[in-house]
Amino acid sequence: MPVAIITGASKGLGRALGAALAERGWDLVLDARTAGVLEETAVALSGYGTRVEALPGDVTDAGHRAELVAAARKLGGADLLVNNASALGAEPLVRLEDLTLDGLRQALEVNVVAALGLIQEALPLLRAAEAGAVVDISSDAAAEAYETWGGYGASKAALDHLSAVLGEEEPGLRVWAVDPGDMGTDLYAAAVPDDDDPRPTPDSVVPAFLRLLDERPASGRYAAPALLEER
């Protein structure tokens, strides 16, 4: 069975992707910081009959990243890495004049540095896979200027560029930076707690990610809403 490593997988988009892959027979290595919630997710997803390894921890910890890849190796390799874990830098979001530099560093450390660290750790397994792929979760804030989204958006823009360069350097892999579009997640609620407008659920955008895996288009940046509209 193919194996996927998914960070930030205890809820939201990470859990929704994990469930869709488990339903297809994928084995999973799941990461999140909250052990209890992650274990609940692992038990639920193992109900699909696949193997699920849940490793609570912080992706900024090099030792934890090594453990994730080691777990995938024990399951047979790594066919897919999903860098979904994210940090806002401030909760709720603030204007750049009020964004602490430590907050910006946190966003960059989680969203960019840790993502690259996990990619580097997993590359030997991804290269050995028959159809290795990396999915880096982006945001429209990486491409558009929204008030208060500067720090987070800058980190996601850096992740986009990292993804683009990796795609050039690793022609044997597929490297997709994916903007999932608006979603009702805990991350968004923490970013903008006063926004009561209903937003799509994470599972509603999962078909866009499955389309990438099924069709394997060229490495690049994709927007989930556009992928859904084109079906």
From TrEMBL:
Classification via SUPFAM superfamilies: NAD(P)-binding Rossmann-fold domains (SSF51735)
Its EC number(s): 1.-.-.-
Enzyme class: oxidoreductase
Key words, A-Z: Oxidoreductase
GO MF assignments: oxidoreductase activity
InterPro entries (alphabetical): NAD(P)-bd_dom_sf, Sc_DH/Rdtase_CS, SDR_fam
Protein family per UniProt: Belongs to the short-chain dehydrogenases/reductases (SDR) family.
Protein's recorded name: SDR family NAD(P)-dependent oxidoreductase
Annotated source species: Streptomyces lutosisoli
